[in-house]
Predict the 3D structure of the following.
Amino acid sequence: MKTFSSIKTMFSLLLIAICFLFNSCSGPEPASKITDISDIKAEIDVFQRLTDENNNSISVILYDKKGKKFGNDSVKISVNGKKAEYKVMPYMYYSKLYHYRAEKVPPIKGNYEIQIQLANGKKLFLARIPSLPQSSSKNIIYEKEAPLNRDFSIQWSGLRDVNVLYLSKSVQVKNRDENNVETFIEKAADTIKIGPDGNYTLKKENFSNPGERLSIASFEFTAEKTGTLNPKLIKGSTAKISGSHEERVSFK
């Protein structure tokens, strides 16, 4: 009885694995089935350099009412009148990423206007996302190499629309079995709400813990905004833009 139960369990797991692979490898739903904006969920992400608003990339992923991705060349996406390319890219082993992508699209009157044309020819407003104002990383003042025996401070000014600081740390850890061998571990990033002007201090007391010491701190000064979506889109649709200045500090 035990043997039969084990075989049954293994068979069930095999079926689950096959179903997972089938769903991961199968393509998107036929775009011709989607005839109305209310049948669409959209995930729209814009990345823009804070030093150059024309250096950007826009990604649009579309889903049907069942949460299944859809799209092909018969469904067209445009950003400020520029056609986005439909791309199929490998993603995490057996799956693929189906999305529309456009790059280096100049904002018009401070916005990215995104439109969709369905396979039946219907043209519709999808989203409007504000561009990010430009700022300079020269306004971020700090020591690029800092000593471990005193507090470290970083200050900034004029980083327009920057509202989040992502702080990540790399620590050096001694191998317990081999004293001469050291490895580096990345710590989870801290999320700190900030404004366009401010300062932040790392206390020297937090630089070292038993068996480890701070090696590198990375500061990502990020501007994040949301856009306006077509209200008929399926709930859970998103339109976001982000850009950042990244700075790294080595501790000795």
Notes: The longest strand covers residues 212-226.
